[in-house]
Amino acid sequence: MRSVISRKQSTGARVWTNPERRWLLSIVVSGILLRLATAILLGDNVVPLPAAYDQIYFHDVALNLLEGKGFAYSRPPWPFIQPLAPTAYTSFLYQIAIAGVYWIFGPHPLAARITQALIGSLLPWLIYGIVRRIHRQPPVVEKQSKVVALVAAGITAFYSYFIYFSATLMTDGPYLVTLAWALILTLGLADQPTRWRWAMWGLAVGLAILLRQVVLPVAGLLFVYIVWKAWRHVQWRHILVAAGVIAALILPWTVRNYLVFHRFLLLNSQAGQVFWNANHPDLGTQWEYAPMFPIPADLQGADEVTLNDELMRRGLQVVVENPGRFVQLSLSRLEMFFLFYPLPESSLFSNIARTFSFGICLPFMAVGLVLSLQEWRRWLLLYLFIVAYTLIHIVSWVQIRYRMPIDMALIPFAALTVVTLTNYVMQRVKRTENRWIKA
Fold first, then answer.
1. What is 6-74 written as a DSSP string?
2. Is residue 8 pLDDT above 50, yes or no?
């Protein structure tokens, strides 16, 4: 018993005597306090909020689940969804999670906000882990690696978008956590592709897919990266374990959709409607914020899956018929996707959050991308992730909150710039002091 107690005491002592761990703990705790404060500030009711209007629909479905009405909207978000009709429009996992919190604590949005804020508080620690993993191979200066990782964690903890969406009843906060976890596991598998890591990778990727099915192509990219980096050590039976975990998470919902709609639908029924609206001929070559066009007359009354399939087909047909317009329209979405400055039509909160997060960090992110090119192999996974995630959205639907996974992947580059610039300034100051001493 004494040996156990002494081990616990020595572990606690190491945390407080190790400067790196002490700094990391301080950053994580700061992030927790900021997120909890935001959750309390948003309160125990659900009203439309800037960039988080959809939380009223997640709350609605969670209440219907508790009342035994299943996955259904009392107030559907779109006219083609019937009230209290079975739906597959949004994340099953997230709606179950909110309903689960309500079942335990009662229908109190504040309980869900606090729970989600605590989950979102893991993100700074995960970003720290990503940077440390990136610098593990090939060997680098250990001290600089630790500092860059801590600065990246600090930026993440205080990044206003991450704080805000950790406390809103939206999928964004948990989604970022699962993505960061998947990136760490991808880097780990590239070094040591063990069966246990493959299973955890399947869990992380599967949860991310259940939260946002848009990540499916990115999941494929992560898999290719692992196989490419560790192909000599990859064992296909281990890959089957990961595939089995992902299938176990997704297939029950595919079966549910078939039983409800009598047609195949992997997960959610948004993709077709989103792609069709995003590339509608009436848009021309210039993107408009959140365009919504009427459902074609011949599709009025069709169920969600039929609409999803048919609108996707028609959206792709529009692209094939005029690929030049599609390219111009996609490029026009870049400005909205990477918006960093205030807009007159945006709320005061949105303008402040945008400017004092992405607006401030963007120059550091850009410089960091250039600095990292000297060791591009180490940073390759983040490059690929950023490019793939950008392409997925600029060919379809862009909103600033959809860019947060890219912000997350760019923050390590901003940290690299901060550390490099700080070292440069300190060296210049030291040289100046030395000259004064010699004089």
1. HHHHHHHHHHHH-HHHHHHHHHHHHHHHHHHHHHHHH-SS----TT-TTHHHHHHHHHHHHTT--SB-S
2. no
